[in-house]
Each structure stands twice: as structure tokens, then as C-alpha cells.
Amino acid sequence: MPAAIETIDFHGQPALRLATASGAQAVVLLLGAQVVSWTPPGGPERLYLSERAAFDGSAAVRGGVPVCFPQFAARGPLPRHGFVRTMPWSVETQRTGTDFALATLRCTDTEATRALWPHRFALELTVAIEESRLDLELEVVNEDDAPFSFTAALHTYLKVREVEETRIEGLYGLDYEDSTDAGRLHHDSGDVLLIESETDRIYREVARPLLVREYDRSLGINQEGFHDVVVWNPWEERCAALADMPDRGFRHMLCVEAAAVHAPIELEAGLNWWGRQTLVAL
User: Fold this and answer.
1) Cis, bond preceding 70 (omega within 30 deg of 0)
2) pTM for this one?
3) What distance in Å separates the CA atoms of residue 270 and residue 196, rounded to the nearest whole number?
4) Active-site option among 119, 155, 227, 262
5) End-to-end alpha carbon distance in the chain
6) Does domain 4-281 have CATH number 3.50.50.60?
7) Chain segment 70-102, per-residue pLDDT in tens
8) Domain boundaries, the chain
9) Does 155 participate in catalysis according to the annotation?
């Protein structure tokens, strides 16, 4: 079968399904432009999606890759992780080739967003699959008459077989803000990062690729434009407090997020900024 893009219903929400001739697939909700599934050719699902996720638009879908903008987490006066996660996005572009599929979704400010954040903007998220690779690119356009600043992230939930047996390579020697330790700054001096308890770290100035290793498979992660990496797992107690997560869900998910958090992006009027995250199944 050739590469194709089709409109589908996904748990009651309109979505695009991207597929390539080699067998890769991805599903993107129009709600929040949220990627909720990615399977490389012949492989299992690589994104975590909670079995208790809500799809009624009342809250962001728990899992996949939510888009956080113009605020990361609760680091400001806006709703947690901003407001575009629950906004409707429109399909701007669809394109397929010999063995790739690409779609760009777009959203812009509204009267409701300007009541929360008084700026005119446009966002575009481009999702592309090719062979064993998923590319996500977020573009922010300042359509206002004055500069504005923002924080943002691609809040990527990876599906892992067992989080305690998973290791992240590539973060050694970097400083990170530890949200489980009142935001104190630490220095990562280990060769690998193991997840053995609640983990909520913002690594600064990450310039090298990362590798997430499991038993017999790995996932390469690279980013451009985004300077920070967030690593998050709620662990047992906090997971149990999340209504849209199963109690043991923390064992099978690990967030490794491309982010711009520590230093907000300052964007002049009329200019644009972009950040990209690439996942490669190995």
C-alpha cells in the first residue's frame, strides 16, 4: 500500500491517521494537535496513552504528545501547560511521498485566549513519519504589534515495558532543576539516568542526542530549537492521585520532553520561532 493520510474518528474525536508504505503509522487528534499513537514499521506502539484518558475536550488527553504553550506547567498565571492542548486545530497541509507522510495543523489566538494572554499568535505543528522516524516541529509566529515571551514543550509520553528497567543516556554532566526537591539545581554526574522513584527534572542546555534503552530495543531522541529536556515519571503515589491514569500506569510510561522552560523565548513582533523533536526507533 502507498503512503496515505485519512481522516478518522478516534475515541469520538476527529483525527488524522498517517501511514507509510513500509508500515509506519501515526494518529494526530485535531484537538490540541496531539499525536496519540506512533508505531514504526513492524514494531509495537511507542507512545503511551492512558487507558483512562478523557476525550471529551474538558481536559488534555493523558498521553501521546501534548503541545504546551504559552506556559509550561504552573510556571506562571495561565492554566497549567497553557491553553492550546484543548483548542481545536485545523489541518493546514497534507503530503505523502514514496515512503513518508506529513501533516501540518494550525491554531491561532481567539477572543478567549486573548482574555487569558493578550497576544495575537499562530502555531503550527508539523508531524512527519518516515521509516522508523517520527518528526515533530512546532512553529510559533508572533502576529502581535509588540514582542512577547513564552515557554513551551512537546510533552512526549514514551511507552516503556518497565520503567525501572529503562535507562536514559546522554544527560551526564548537565545541570537540572529538580522539581521534587523544591526546584533546587543539581548536576548530573552519572553515566545513565535510572527511574527508581518520582522523577521531575528540567535539564538545561541539552545539545547532544539522547538514547532511551530498554531490554532489546532503544529509542534515539534529538531536538533542535528547544534547549531543555524534561524527564518526568509520577511514580506510585502521584500516579494514584491522577484520575486519568491507572494506578500502575507509571510503570509503563516515561516522559522525555523537548522544552523551552528555563529561559523563556523572547519573540519580536512579526517574527517566528521553531523547535523540533525527532524520535528514531532502534
Assistant:
1) yes
2) 0.97
3) 45
4) 155
5) 24
6) no
7) 999 999 999 999 999 999 999 999 999 999 999
8) 4-281
9) yes
